[in-house]
Amino acid sequence: MSVQSAPATGIAPASATTEQQASTTALAGGATGADEPAATRGRTSIADVVVVKVAGVAAREIPGVHAMGGGLSRTIGAVRDRVPGGRSNVGRGVKVEVGERQTAIDLDLVVEYGLPIADLARDVRENVIDAVERITGLEVVEVNVTINDVHLPEDEDGAPETTTSRVA
After folding, report:
1. By CB neighbour count within 10 A (0-12 exposed, 13-18 middle, 19+ buried), where does 14 fall?
2. Which of 54, 93, 141, 143 is a Cys-bridge partner for 108, taking CB atoms 3.0 to 4.6 Å apart?
3. Which among 122, 124, 125, 114 is positioned nearest to 151, based on CA atoms?
4. What's the CA angle centered on 121, arms 118 and 123, to 5 degrees?
5. What angle do CA 127, 26, 52 make, to 5 degrees?
6. What is the pLDDT of residues 52-111, one digit of tens each?
7. Which of 117, 16, 17 is nearest to 66 (CA)?
């Protein structure tokens, strides 16, 4: 995944994940001075973690998305969620690259069994693009969706295991 860097647009890609140190992207360089309009006095910066959280929440809003993240991150997240006072990580399964005006997003999903995966991925992509562009003002150049697993109804916690032996 990469944000296109072109001299004409001045896009300098910056990479961030939830595990990396947070960085910020300046959206608007403002002017200073009392004679400038109020709306242009100062700068607006958006931390990469903001894009991660917005994309994570938007992806989870789509029915059929059971969980996000790879196997290890889901396991660690499940332990974290059970700890008293622990909070859910909405950025789990989301990686972003943020430039000056553009962003690219990678999502790792677990989907519910029986739903058309291509349609679900399209719905997730559309919702994430809409939310990130509306909330941050950044142009989303791509959203890559990886389906890591399918959640089966019998995978529910506490469901009785009904495996039978094929041999006597």
Report:
1. middle
2. 93
3. 114
4. 110
5. 35
6. 999 999 999 999 999 999 765 545 555 555 566 655 678 889 999 999 899 999 999 999
7. 117
Write 74-77 long-range contacts (CB < 8 A, 24+): 74/110
Number of Cβ within 10 Å of residue 143's Cβ equals: 23
Residue 15 contacts residue 99 (beta carbons within 8 Å): no
Bridge partner list, 145: 107
For the stretch 3-32, pLDDT in tens is 544 333 333 344 344 344 456 766 666 667
Contacts for 70-78 with beta carbons within 8 Å, 24 or more apart? 70/108, 70/148, 71/148, 71/149, 73/108, 74/110
How many Cα atoms occupy the beta-carbon half-sphere of 120 within 13 Å?
23
Cα angle, residue 64 at apex, residues 119 and 150 outer, rounded to 5°: 90
User: How many alpha carbons lie under 13 Å from residue 85 in its C-beta half-sphere?
Assistant: 0
Instruction: Provide the whole-model pTM.
Output: 0.69
- Determine the length of the chain: 168
In whole angstroms, what is the distance from residue 141 CA to residue 52 CA? 15
